[in-house]
Write a structure and sequence with these properties.
seven-stranded parallel sheet, 8 helices
């Protein structure tokens, strides 16, 4: 199985969760170093040649990718009237087009196997919206339409496509928020706490498991109730 952007944060927790259940796990990363114990391959999801090279290396080491978690993403937050064309297109290129490219590449092997799981990591922002994140929200909501179209195209070959939509997650970034801002966000969440990355990972491993064989085209929120009704 392969997790894009798996060297930190939610992606790393997802990769570790699959290691813990005994899977052969590979991750892509663009900078830094891969976590120990994982097959790490450098990959820029905005570059088709880089994607092909990464998949070739993973397939050579682990065989065909049976589970893909498309997690790699970036943010370039700013208000609409300040957002440049580059701010918008860069985020779309990584979060949405990059996810399309890796899913398309993975689907080739899955179609030959006649089985597979594709899981896109979206965000509550993609459904709820967020001021200052027009680009990010557009990219993350786009994953829903893409997954549901793939679910219809590939379902007859026993390939599922689903979306996980996390809310606020405890990360180094959220830990640095001012206390007043943290309190403001927490007040909007019915469970009154942030998620752990491991809680997101647990939903992803479920969707990849035999127990979820009849789940496809679903959007599963992991947001403490923040996005209810959206």
């Amino acid at each position: 199985m392969l997790v894009t952007g798996g060297n930190r944060g939610i992606g790393r927790a997802i990769a570790q969760a699959f290691v813990d259940v005994g899977d052969d796990v590979a991750i892509t990363y663009r900078s830094g170093e891969p976590p120990p114990g994982l097959l790490g391959v450098r990959c820029d999801v905005t570059d088709p040649e880089s994607i092909d090279a990464a998949f070739a290396e993973v397939e050579d080491r682990h065989g065909p990718v049976e589970v893909l978690v498309a997690n790699a993403g970036i943010t370039k937050d700013t208000l609409l009237l300040r957002m440049s064309d580059e701010d918008f297109t860069d985020v779309i290129a990584t979060n949405l087009t990059g996810s399309f490219r890796v899913a398309k590449r993975a689907a080739k092997g899955m179609l030959r196997l006649r089985r597979g799981r594709v899981i896109f990591i979206s965000s509550v922002v993609g459904l709820l919206g967020s001021a200052g994140q027009v680009n990010y929200a557009a990219s993350k909501s786009g994953l829903v339409g893409m997954a549901r179209s793939m679910a219809r195209e590939l379902g007859s070959r026993n390939i599922t496509a689903n979306v996980v939509a996390p809310g606020f997650v405890e990360t180094e970034m959220t830990a640095e928020l001012p206390d007043a801002k943290r309190a403001e966000y927490l007040a909007q969440i019915p469970l009154r706490r942030y998620a752990t990355a491991e809680e997101v990972a647990g939903v992803v491993t479920f969707l990849a498991s035999d127990a979820a064989a009849y789940v496809t085209g679903a959007v599963v929120p992991v947001d403490g109730g923040l996005g209810m009704g959206h």
